[in-house]
From TrEMBL:
HAMAP family hit by this protein: UPF0473 (MF_01448)
Highest rank taxon of the organism: Bacteria
Entry's family note: Belongs to the UPF0473 family.
Name by which UniProt lists this protein: UPF0473 protein KHA94_14500
Signal peptide: none
Organism for this UniProt entry: Cytobacillus citreus
Pfam families: DUF1292 (PF06949)
InterPro entries found in the cross-reference section: UPF0473
């Protein structure tokens, strides 16, 4: 995973690289992990479609230049992420 300004490059199971824009990141003390929510660059340019937002746990490298994305494994983590996303989207609508 590479960090640009707000972009990361995500490699899928087939080895295809996709440039994604970071929506936001947050840390969870409960799970002792950091999480990143992101979507494919350009997805927000098409107003007709809902943007598919992806989420992963990540562990930053020691120099914070890049890190490793990891799948989210539990329903409890998904519930937390959904709650954080809903809060984030509500705040965005208010602005």
């Amino acid at each position: 995973m590479n960090h640009g300004e707000n972009n990361i490059t995500v490699v899928d199971e087939e080895g295809n690289e996709q440039l994604c824009e970071v929506l936001f990141t947050f840390d969870s003390e409960e799970f002792g992990k950091s999480y990143v929510l992101y979507y494919p660059v350009g997805a927000d340019e098409n107003d007709d479609e809902d943007i598919e937002i992806h989420a992963s746990a990540f562990s930053p490298s020691e120099d914070n230049q890049d890190g490793e994305l990891m799948p989210i494994e539990s329903d409890e983590e998904w519930d937390l992420i959904e709650e954080m996303l809903n809060t984030f989207l509500e705040e965005e609508e208010e602005n």
